[in-house]
Design goal:
- The chain is of the alpha+beta class and 217 residues long.
- It folds into two domains: 89 residues, Alpha-Beta Plaits (2-Layer Sandwich); 92 residues, Regulatory factor, effector binding domain (Multidrug-efflux Transporter 1 Regulator Bmrr, Chain A).
- 22% of the residues lie in helices and 36% in strands.
- The chain has three helices and eleven strands; from the N terminus they run αβββαββββββαββ.
- The strands form two sheets. Strands 1-2-9-11-10-5-6-3-8 form a nine-stranded antiparallel sheet. Strands 4-7 form a two-stranded antiparallel ribbon.
């Protein structure tokens, strides 16, 4: 059982998080999201154009547990004052994660071996942010980057957002994009908009696949 001495600092950490990311409302109505131009919608599938974005990123080695949880903690510390000059930064949705490298299957009892694989976990900084004006992270594992403008194929769904479900939805998105004669590039980006204690049927998850620029005539 958690003692009062341990409970107080835990609440001090998580109550601001609940407020900042709108967890009191399952719809996340008060949490800003990056703006985009919707090019096409077809049921749960979309084509979207996003402008360039500043992101805070942490890299989590494969095999270190849930990458979203492992990456969330240092990123949350950064936006809640773990920076110079100890400024608070507005939380946005979604939190994204993307795998780089690869894992190699092995025989039992070991099921996977890391082969340079890691996950990029990111918070998207508020609209209008620039690298020049963002607070400097105290944690050297938190990096600030500018993501260039891109077009993405997107699939939206609800539920638990497990790795298996994300992988399944990635394949569904690839199949839909092939049917539209569109070419995805790079690894899928898994985007989650709600906290884990939100009822599964109210959660929103997405998979994004960057699209190759159309050939010039």
């Amino acid at each position: 059982m958690m003692t009062k001495s341990l409970l107080r600092p835990a609440l001090a950490l998580f109550l601001p998080l609940l407020s900042a990311i709108g967890l009191a409302s399952p719809t996340q109505a008060d949490t800003p999201e990056p703006t985009f131009k919707r090019v096409l919608r077809d049921g749960t599938f979309e084509i979207r154009d996003y402008d360039s974005q500043v992101v805070a990123e942490v890299r989590v080695p494969e095999g270190r547990g849930d990458p979203a949880n492992a990456g969330f903690r240092p990123l949350a510390r950064y936006i809640f004052g773990g920076n110079k000059p100890r400024a608070s930064i507005a939380m946005t949705a979604p939190v994204t994660r993307q795998q780089e490298g690869q894992s190699i299957a092995m025989t039992a009892p070991v099921t996977r071996q890391d082969a340079g694989a890691e996950w990029k976990v990111r918070f998207i900084m508020p609209e209008g942010s620039t690298l020049a004006t963002m607070p400097v992270p105290n944690d050297p594992n938190v990096r600030l980057l500018e993501e260039p403008a891109k077009r993405y194929g997107v699939i939206t769904f609800s539920g638990f957002g497990s790795q298996a479900m994300m992988a399944q939805k990635s394949e569904e998105l690839r199949t839909w994009l092939r049917g539209k004669k569109l070419t995805p590039i790079g690894a899928p980006i898994y985007a989650s908009y709600d906290p884990p204690w939100t009822a599964p049927f109210l959660r929103r998850h997405e998979v994004w696949l960057a699209l190759a620029a159309p050939a010039k005539p």
